[in-house]
Write a structure and sequence with these properties.
Helix 4 runs parallel beside helix 5. This protein has helices spanning 15-24, 31-50, 132-139, 182-189, 206-212, 246-256, 279-286, 313-324, 344-361, 374-377, 386-390, 394-409, 413-435, 460-465, 476-480, 515-528; strands spanning 68-72, 82-88, 102-106, 143-148, 168-169, 172-176, 195-199, 215-218, 239-243, 298-302, 332-336, 438-442, 484-493, 501-510. Helix content is 33%, strand content 15%. It contains 16 helices and 14 strands.
Length: 534
């Protein structure tokens, strides 16, 4: 590292300060070298001390323009769905796309002055900024009604770990609403809000969307800015809409999509104009005769999406029946094979712990060009304390254990190897999408599982086994970055009690930055068929 300046710092880092530091790193330095580094590190320390306060450059909201009132933790939290209630809006919106609409934020998103739990008691954090997309929905005329509960550290696919309590499925108490955007799924399904945000790193928009019978879109990676949202791993972070129907999903996406100048997940150019228009193409399609809505559209039925170990036959039957209806809408439907799809979940599993442990749990986002949430990061050290680890849910504690193991045993090699192999998987999806406009498969392999009894203190192995393989069809598209939409297509019997009927869904995957194709295909099916009667 080059040296910019050398001076006479007011506080000198001595050889005695450095000797144990180097020893801890397994290094032995001669006295002359220690003297050199004493001067060099003293200069670095002086530079650090001279840094101005970064709060001056942070996007603090104008609270007179974006007031928030009635901030409270509700006694009635809608069967676990609400974490915190608030009323926040813009007094002078720039447009009316969401005028009169109500929105819930996932509780990993910054809303200045309102606690952000991230589903855990690991840290106590109230942000001073608003996430970019939070400002955008208020500018579009929406009213934010609160923060929806999310699963512990956003690392669970089942809704039993939020620090605010279990979130129950809207169709059956005691069953999972899906995770990690669990509260968002339930609030939209029950009509408590019109729309909600979800964030998705392995399926956390699509799992609760499928479980709760609503529409959920994981957009193309980088289409929607992640600024001001707690990250899990920047390479798989996605924020997106969860809505009652497809047109609302298109509307919500149109409001929140586009570059913000902060987030390096987003491309430096090209996200503009018609590429950010989603409502008018959907409306144009819906104006056609049903038999012509999907005329010329090629739909690939991905074979491997129906070959997940432990897949429920009722889910397979329901989704195949739904896919069979596309031909009546004018589409061409044919099978397609992407063998690497079966390997993708293992690659996701191996790629996540090192970066996820560092970025998500320790708040270390080094190497990114983005807004750093420094006030939260300073609440966590270079490793978790015992109390912080004990505050984690099964999924989060498992990832931290994996992070420690990979860091100690393998270093950077495992993540690098997995990331290299994932490029081939993404290329395989791209190849299939040259032949087809979209790919379809079940969103989840089985219906929402039953949750353990509250306070049962079930161990991580037993708890995580309840949702084994849940992300097999969802997590591959987090790594590849393709847009993936979950559309409800019917009810299936619960595995634990066949008399209980729970929603299931079809996943529609499109080309990168062709999210509108997913929306159009879903909108056509939704208009023609009532999923609740199938």
């Amino acid at each position: 590292m080059s040296v910019v300046q050398l001076g006479t710092p007011s506080t000198r880092v001595t050889e005695d300060d450095l000797r144990p530091l180097f020893a801890k790193a397994g290094l032995q330095l001669s006295e002359p070298l220690l003297g050199d580094y004493s001067t060099l590190i003293s200069s670095l320390d002086a530079a650090i001390a001279s840094l101005p306060d970064d709060k001056a450059v942070l996007p603090h909201p104008d609270l007179t323009k974006y007031p928030r009132t009635d901030i409270h933790v509700p006694e009635d939290n809608e069967m676990g769905a609400w974490a915190t209630k608030v009323n926040a809006k813009c007094i002078s919106p720039t447009d009316d796309l969401l005028k009169g609409r109500t929105v819930a934020l996932k509780d990993n998103m910054a809303l200045a002055g309102v606690r952000c739990t991230n589903g855990t008691s690991m840290v106590d954090w109230t942000p001073e900024i608003d996430a970019t997309v939070v400002t955008r929905v208020m500018d579009a005329g929406a009213t934010i009604l609160g923060k929806a509960a999310c699963e512990n550290s956003c690392l669970e696919g089942m809704s039993g770990t939020a620090v605010t309590g279990q979130v129950h499925n809207p169709y059956a108490k005691g069953y999972s609403a899906g995770g990690s955007s669990s509260g968002s799924g339930r609030l939209v399904a029950t009509g408590s809000v019109d729309m909600a945000f979800g964030c998705d790193q392995g399926g956390s928009i699509r799992i609760p969307a499928s479980s709760c019978g609503i529409v959920g879109l994981k957009p193309t990676w980088g289409l929607v800015p992640y600024t001001g949202i707690l990250s899990l791993d920047a390479t798989i972070d996605h924020a997106g809409p969860m809505t009652k129907n497809v047109r609302d999903c298109a509307l919500f996406l149109e409001v929140i999509a586009g570059p913000d100048g902060w987030d390096d997940r987003q491309p430096p150019f090209g996200l503009e104009g018609d590429k950010l228009k989603f409502v008018s193409p959907v409306d144009a399609l819906l104006a056609k005769e049903p038999s012509k809505m999907l005329e010329g559209v090629r739909i690939g039925v991905m074979t491997e999406g129906f070959e997940i170990p432990g897949q429920d036959p009722n889910v397979v039957s329901s989704v195949k029946s739904a896919i069979g209806k596309f031909e009546s809408l004018g589409a061409t439907v044919a099978p397609v094979s992407v063998p690497l799809h079966k390997e993708a979940p293992i690659l996701w599993t191996c790629a996540l712990p090192l970066s996820g442990g560092r970025q998500s749990l320790l708040g270390d986002m080094d190497g990114r060009k983005q807004l750093y949430l420094t006030d939260r990061a300073e609440l966590v050290g270079p490793k978790l304390t015992q109390a912080q680890f004990d505050a984690l849910g099964p999924g989060a504690s498992n990832m931290y254990a994996g992070y420690l193991w990979i860091q100690e045993r393998y270093g950077a090699k495992v993540q690098g190897k997995a990331m290299n192999l994932l490029k081939a998987t993404s290329d395989a999806y791209d190849k299939a999408l040259k032949e087809f406009d979209v790919l379809v498969m079940p969103t989840l392999p089985y219906p929402p599982p039953q949750m353990p009894e509250p306070g049962s203190n079930e161990g991580p192995l037993s708890f995580l086994t309840r949702s084994l393989g849940l992300v097999s069809n969802t997590c591959p598209f987090n790594n590849s970055g393709h847009p993936a939409l979950s559309l409800p297509v019917g009810f299936v019997p619960a595995r634990e009690d066949p008399s209980i009927k729970l929603p299931t869904a079809m996943q529609i995957v499109g080309r990168k930055y062709a999210d509108v194709d997913c929306l159009k295909v879903a909108a056509a099916w939704e208009k023609a068929f009532d999923w609740k009667t199938l």
